[in-house]
Write a structure and sequence with these properties.
Length: 110
C-alpha cells in the first residue's frame, strides 16, 4: 500500500513512531520497517514523512538520538524513547483508544 495524505490520520504517525521505539532503539529506516511490521503492512511511511516526525519528536524531548553503525555497516542515527516519550506514548495510546471506541460506537449505531 502506498502512503497518501489520507492513509495516516492526523497524530497517528507520532503514536506509531513512539510505539515502534517502545520495543528498543532503531535507526530511521528501521522505524519505518517496524511500523510496517506492527501494522501488518497497512502503513508504509516514506522518509519524507518519517524524518520530519523523528526530528519533531526529538525536539519535543520524547526521543533521544545517537550515531551508530547499521546492520550493513553504515553510519546511522539511532532513536530511542526518553522517559518523557514513554509518558507521551501512554497519553497518545489512551487518546487513540478513546477515539477508536467512539468511532466504533458511532458505526454500530442504528
Amino acid at each position: 500500500m502506498k502512503e497518501t495524505k489520507n492513509d495516516l490520520l492526523k497524530g497517528t504517525l507520532d503514536l506509531l513512531v513512539l510505539q515502534s521505539l517502545s520495543l528498543g532503539p532503531l535507526h530511521g529506516l528501521g522505524v519505518s520497517d517496524r511500523i510496517a511490521q506492527i501494522t501488518q503492512g497497512a502503513f508504509k511511511v516514506k522518509p519524507g514523512s518519517l524524518f520530519p516526525a523523528l526530528h519533531r519528536l526529538e525536539e519535543a524531548g520524547w526521543l533521544k538520538s545517537s550515531w551508530g553503525e547499521s546492520e550493513n555497516n553504515r553510519r546511522a542515527k539511532y532513536y530511542r524513547l526518553t522517559k518523557a516519550g514513554q509518558r507521551q506514548l501512554k497519553v497518545e495510546t489512551e487518546g487513540w483508544q478513546r477515539i477508536s471506541l467512539a468511532i466504533t460506537s458511532a458505526l454500530k449505531a442504528t
